[in-house]
Fold this protein.
Amino acid sequence: MRFKYFLSVLVLEFAGRAAFADGVTINKMTVMSGDVEVPVEVAIPSGKGPFPPVLYIHAKRGYDEVDRRHITTLAEQGFLVMAPDWQTGRFIERWPTTHDPATENDVEAAMDKLISYHYACRIPIGIVGYSRGGYYSIRLAAKRGKDIAAIANYAGHMQNPNAPEPEQLFSVAPEVAHVSTPMLFLIGEQDYELRRMNGGRAFYSLYERGVPVEMQYYPLARRAFDFRNDQTPEEKIATRHARERVKNWLRKYMKVDKDGHCSDDTYSAHLAQFKLILIVSANEANQDVEIKHAGKTPKGYRGRL
């Protein structure tokens, strides 16, 4: 009986793709970070996967409908997007003044989940960060650069939020010196001077070391130009331009084709493992059921539901 239950779960997971044919689907789930349950939303494109994976890291204003619209747009562009809410799981109020380093583990836990997610191509991920989310992106890139193909930051904070004021003004986070991931900065020319200075210094630091980096300034655009309720006509145009700019940046360095499809062989091999052999472990029933198909069994493979 338990075998039938586990097998049903597998069938539903893979058959579920058909349900996304009419548009983007957003699923809500949690990932564990130590003993903390981190709320996560996953935006899944329509059509047949796999899809290039993107980690979306929200600003300190909190995760809300603005971010949901943003990840929906990314999914409409063909990206599988995972967006952890790094505040709610630890009962952090919106607009925190200080930075809680423990939340970095929460974001990284979501990144690990994204990398192994069934609909994700098995390629280095992209990251889209917003404001404080930019700081998380450089922390991850300095630590796990091989897992990250490209970063795009909207008004990204390039300094430790807990650093003293002089460092906020006149330097960038030390992680910037260890980042080799291609990075795109997007910022309105009327954003806060501190943020423009901070991002500018990070740009020059990356450029001097030969890291692919570009800075996109938007004339007449204010802070949060892409979701302001009082958007000017110019800011609406800037928003459309920014979304396309990010899409093209991610596609270029994630090495997907012109239609946004993955070209990696590793995901095909991942799926082939299920066609070749599936070992269902029903621990509580203390039984293993093996289903073999024609072909060579991948060495050491053990599928678990």
Helices lie at 2-15, 65-76, 102-116, 132-143, 165-170, 193-208, 233-254, 266-276. Confidence is low (pLDDT under 50) at residues 1-22, 273-305.
